[in-house]
Write a structure and sequence with these properties.
32% of the residues lie in helices and 24% in strands. It is an alpha+beta fold. The longest helix has 22 residues. The protein is elongated, with a radius of gyration of 23 Å.
Length: 322
């Protein structure tokens, strides 16, 4: 490093070289800093940027290397800008915020309609020790398999359409939640846990697609997110848990109807980003555990099953919640 600095010290061009790299660094910083201002009018570009926002940090070391290659002091200083912005946005997720408390463990898993081993997937999720488990993308033929595999661990359960909820504690008031799809992909039930009653919502919002000719197509997902947000807002119980595949991240402004009124357990009490999809190389956390009126204690991802999603779990504290 000293040799490198010594080699640059007498070079008067270090401030004039690398202006393109410096410009790219500033542009990257502005995209991350102002991502919420990127419009969705064309191909939902704003939501697409929101979804993969953490990955923009990958370009920082690339720009840093280019700055060194160009021997540009201007570029090196400019690269500090996206570094600072990224750390401000996501630095808090790097540290381990998990606590040791909690009195209720919950888990959620999109099991994949084409899962070749539903029984094994059910056993894997049950082995997590979760008190309450939500499953999404259930098929009519697979439901009996999941019911049989989980019956010894979970005495209570309810399946509504393609989503289901299994619990060690009594379930009451189980019913579908209308998320404006024309068929059932969301439900709500009351779990009577030892520390008190909790309203548990399970949801599988419509999928999104990235198409060259249409961009990030998410109109139906966004409509369903708004309907889900309204249902949660109208909930009578003060303790609420949302489990499910929302096909969107906490950064996606299109999910504001839900995310604005709830806390992510991963963001509040997890370690790392908790990416859940795709299971083979997770790039985004679209499977969510969110709470309202409940304190998150820890949050984590579970090992891969026969699904293309990873299961996610969290431990929360019901007793100390109001």
């Amino acid at each position: 490093m000293n040799r490198l600095i010594a080699g640059w010290s007498g070079d008067r061009r270090i401030w004039r070289r690398g202006l393109v790299v410096a410009g790219l660094a500033v542009l990257l910083a502005l995209i991350m800093l102002l991502h919420a201002q990127i419009p969705n009018a064309i191909g939902n570009l704003g939501s697409l940027t929101d979804t993969f926002l953490p990955w923009l940090g990958v370009f920082v070391p690339v720009l840093l290397v280019l700055a060194f290659v160009r021997k540009s002091a201007t570029a090196l200083i400019a690269v500090l800008l996206p570094s600072i912005v990224w750390l401000n946005l996501f630095g808090g997720l790097i540290s381990d915020k998990a606590g040791n408390g909690g009195d209720l463990t919950v888990a959620t898993h999109n099991v994949n309609a084409d899962n070749a081993d539903p029984a094994g997937t059910a056993r894997d999720v049950a082995a997590s020790g979760a008190d309450v488990v939500a499953l999404e993308e259930l098929t009519t033929s697979a439901v009996p398999v999941y019911e049989k595999a989980l019956e010894s661990t979970y005495r209570y359960h309810s399946v509504q359409g393609t989503v289901g909820l299994w619990s060690k504690y009594p379930l009451t008031g189980a019913k579908p939640v209308d998320i404006k799809l024309g068929w059932t992909r969301a439900m709500r039930a009351t779990v009577t846990a030892p520390a008190g009653q909790v309203a548990v919502y399970v949801a599988h919002l419509p999928s999104v697609r990235v198409k060259l000719e249409a961009g990030f197509t998410a109109r139906q997902r966004d409509k369903s997110a708004n309907a889900l947000g309204e249902a949660i807002e109208d909930e009578k119980l003060t303790r609420i848990v949302l489990l499910g595949d929302l096909n969107g991240t906490m950064n996606d402004r299109a999910l504001n109807a839900v995310t604005a009124q709830m806390r992510s357990t991963q963001g509040a009490a997890g370690s790392g980003f908790g990416f859940s999809w795709p299971a083979s190389f997770p790039m985004a956390r679209i499977d969510q555990i969110m709470v309202k009126g409940i304190e998150p204690e820890s949050s984590w991802t579970l090992p891969q099953t026969g699904s293309d999603h990873l299961p996610v779990a969290a431990r929360v504290n019901v007793a100390t919640s109001s």
